[in-house]
């Protein structure tokens, strides 16, 4: 049965994914929680998490200084209806075919322009997309797509009516087409396309109040020690405060066991996880009762997973416990060293580690981090992140390199930021262990002015076997805050979900097909 598969796979996958998010967010949330009283609590424990938060805030400030206008405009789209108009064209400076012909493929491409108009109102959960294009000597327009939390609509240039399908009618159509496979209870939850938050704000607040703060209180003060130490960061000898956070194997297990036990008896936490699985761990297609608001057997799955985790902790091995050391200068972590070895048995121990340095002054930031794990066979899998960031009064020169055993990705950016205006030239370089390399070059400009913005973008590709500027893609964008997003009236709509299968086939044969043929002849002509 579909529901049995969904229960077993989706519940555990979504539950484990949510646990990972909670654990990853814990340090930052603890940092935010202790920030309020750290003025009176100067303990190494409080400072450890406060420095973690301040370092994240510092890195966030680097992003904000570079992309503040983009972030601000993105936030406008969360509160207001936004209209985006994209004009897309391409220039192909190479010959695709040697075949003789009056019109070549590259000529068609070079004389093609596509315009996409998007309107989105996240609050009202309404979206609209319109497409038109010119291709050489002919054009196509009036292709319109609409979506709400309940239905989708499609308007085509050759049709007098706009096709509509409600999410709740999806199963009915499937059942008529294949009653042996589909029950008719299937539906499409279009609301999922408008929900982007991992967790609702009130749910995150509940987790913070009932788990994160409790986790902070459960950490013993003596697990944190502090002393002054001079360390070498790059070419500089830096005076730092060194804080070591260390828990024994028993302490780690006790904290986790207490947390899992509390979760097992927490109905509100159970609801949060269930809602998360439905929102993030499934597709918008609901397969009948198996994906209803209440997942069958979820309570049993929830309790079983937590009980297995609690019981499994007894034999699980963390031989050296948990150790994380940070070195702090001017409230910023300039060096860190973290590692933990764990596994179900001594033969299956795996070591996870993170270490690196960060050096910064008024204009420049240098960073070098190494993240990886060593498996039970002793094989080291790691990723290195190295960066040089510079921002001198709006003149930005950045370089970031991400390296693994088989792949290297380099991002280089030269930008000029002047209040609401920006010019940029960005290059992404991808190379592998065979020596092959390819560049994606993205250049352009942008201007933000209150409730409107415009930008121009040019993309080119260069690499082994690809001549420079052989392909140029141009995207020009204009956006503005709009009053609302309008939908077709009931008189303009043909609701195909209300038709029987026979009525639907008749409709397409007697109305849709003749309209399409007539339109095609008017666009292309009899010489097609």
UniProtKB/TrEMBL annotation:
Residue intervals passing through the bilayer: 18-40
Keywords, comma-separated and alphabetical: Membrane, Transmembrane, Transmembrane helix
Protein name: DUF945 domain-containing protein
